[in-house]
Amino acid sequence: MRFRLTPRETSFYDMFAASADNIVTGSKLLMELLGADASARAEIAERMRAAEHAGDDATHAIFHQLNSSFITPFDREDIYNLASSLDDIMDFMEEAVDLVVLYNIEELPRGVEQQIEVLARAAELTAEAMPNLRTMDNLTEYWIEVNRLENQADQIHRKLLAHLFNGKYEAIEVLKLKQIVDVLEEAADAFEHVANTVETIAVKES
Predict the structure, then answer these.
(1) Which pLDDT tens digit goes with each residue over 100-111?
(2) What are 181-194's pLDDT values in tens digits?
(3) What are the TM regions of this chain, as residue ranges (predicted)?
(4) Is 120:100 a contact under the CB 8 Å cutoff?
């Protein structure tokens, strides 16, 4: 790691870790949604909304710390990008749950569970990686695996679209379901953005 003569503001590490842990909570709520009937989904959506608000608070705390800190552990732009991408993940997951409830979706198409499983794994990897920003150790496997998961998510998404457009669904149902699977795909993309930002930080700090 690059030698520094100046002290570093270390609270960012804890805030990034807390933000990533909250994303794990969101991914678990997505998993709950899969096995829930319509009557239970509204309550899951409420908990997801609370988690999303907690994510917003964590992001605002990072931005506040960034604006008030003279010394930062790494580039300010990278701190901003990392916080924003973590926030995007929670936003997309919360939106997906909310759409399922608002559209009164009775049954999600086969393949959505695979999307959510990919997101849950990416959430675990991200939460494990954030504490390693302190030392920049053991991060290479993280961003390689998240990129692999994003490629897997792309394949699942394309198969889901093909399934939705096979003529078995009513047109309005296709529009509703496509919006949900598209938002889940955006969440997978956001995980990749986080991993790419971490890689950028690690390269600069090496």
Answers:
(1) 999 999 889 999
(2) 999 999 999 999 99
(3) none
(4) no
Q: Where are the domains of the chain?
A: 12-205
Please give the residue that has the higher pLDDT: either 5 or 36.
36
For 50, residues 6+ apart whose C-beta sits below 8 A from its C-beta are none
Contact status, residue 201 vs residue 74, Cβ threshold 8 Å: yes
| 83-to-1, 161, 194 alpha-carbon distances in Å | 22, 31, 8
Q: Which of these CATH numbers, 3.90.76.10, 3.30.460.10, 3.30.70.100, 1.20.58.220, describes 12-205?
A: 1.20.58.220
At position 66, the amino acid (one-letter code) is L
- Nearest Cα residue to 188 out of 96, 99, 107: 96
pTM to 2 decimal places: 0.92
What is the pLDDT, as a whole number, of residue 38? 80
- CA 64 from chain center: how many Å? 21
- Outline where 36-170 has alpha helix (H): 38-68, 76-102, 112-129, 140-164
The structure tokens listed for 61 are: 């705390």
